[in-house]
Amino acid sequence: MELNDLALWWLTECPNLGWTGWRQVLDRCGGIVSASLFGKSAEYYENSLGLSARVARSLDSHGPLTPAVSASVSGLPIRFISDSSKDFPPKIRLMKEFPPIMNIYGNFEILKRPTAVILCSRGPSRDDLELVKTAVDVALDSGYALAAGHNKPAYQLALLAAKRRAEHSVMVLDRGILATFDDDLRRDPLPAARIWGFGFESERSIVISPFRLHDAWIGANSRIRDALAIALADVIVAVQIRPGGVMESLVREAAERGQKVLADEASMKALGDCGAKPWAGRIDPETGITGTKFTRMS
User: Where are the beta strands (DSSP E) in 14-109?
Assistant: First the structure.
């Protein structure tokens, strides 16, 4: 982790300071948080950065980035990027409210590849998951990396298929990276994936989190994870999306802002006239969709 990354890490680890505070500090600092910000007084943070007295005191007590503190994370192969960085993925700016700072582990170049996300509503049936498996294979056969969370059945199918087939994947988290990996970045966080190798394949995978390194999951994080995975996708494949749910709302938003959305028959009924197109097999980045329609597997 480089010095600039350490500075962003230091900022994000401050108690009582969330996305709004991170963005405010970045704005006041011209988008760059440097070591000069470490170890200032509460009065400085309040007056110069416009933070509340309570948050300024928290930042003051957070302390400077000492060698002892920095040594605990400086060896981690994790990057921190802010929304002012040239490396900040432009797709993420599609979100209604995108994270001002993210931490990333793995092959950053994967974010430049065509990417698909396979979405399914909560509580899928066995038949739903069979259809997800088919969609996953079609997306991989069509040359797409797969974006997915790590702890929902449909998402896990995507990540497992990518590892089994030695293809590229983007793991989007609803908690911190170190919390997900249980502080061991060498081990694949999905137990089922270890069948194809115990280690996490950082050359073919990338992990993205807009949360602190050790943040645990809370309910609101799930929607952020789903919105982030959707924003990263060039093609969104909706499988068994139910009407009236969070997933329907997120897919509608994506279609209405111009992202390509493909949907099975049930999802088309739920999504209505929002610009989604019927799923018809192979994804062609140039011409849209070719091939035969999906049928539910028995």
Answer: 78-82, 101-106
Parse the chain into domains and list their residue ranges.
3-80, 108-290
Tens-place pLDDT, residues 218-276: 989 999 999 999 999 999 999 888 888 889 999 999 998 889 999 888 888 888 888 88
For residue 142, the model assigns a pLDDT of 86
With a cut of 50, say whether residue 188 has pLDDT above it.
yes
Place of tokens 């108690």: 15
Cross-strand bridge partners of residue 174: none
Q: What CA–CA distance (Å, rounded) separates 180 from 46? A: 34
**Against a cut of 0.90, is the pTM above it?**
no
CB 223 within 8 A of CB 251: no
> Residue 240: what are its φ and ψ, rounded to 5°?
55, 50
Q: Could you say which DSSP state residue 83 is in?
A: T
Q: What does the block give as tokens for 65?
A: 């980035």
Beta-carbon contacts of residue 12 (< 8 Å; ≥ 6 apart): 22, 80, 101, 103, 212
Cα–Cα distance for residue pair 92/229, rounded to 1 Å: 9
Helix (H) or strand (E) holding 198, with range, is none
CATH 3.40.250.10 for domain 108-290: no
Mean pLDDT over 115-135 rounds to: 89
Please give the full DSSP string across 40-66, using - where no structure is assigned: --HHHHHHHH---HHHHHHHHHH----
Q: Quick check: helix, strand or coil at residue 262?
A: strand
Average pLDDT score over the chain: 86
Measured CA to CA, the distance from residue 232 to residue 249 in angstroms comes to: 17
- Which two tokens mark 245? 């749910």
Measure the CA dihedral 179/183/186/187, to 10°. -60
Tokens describing residue 183: 């502080």
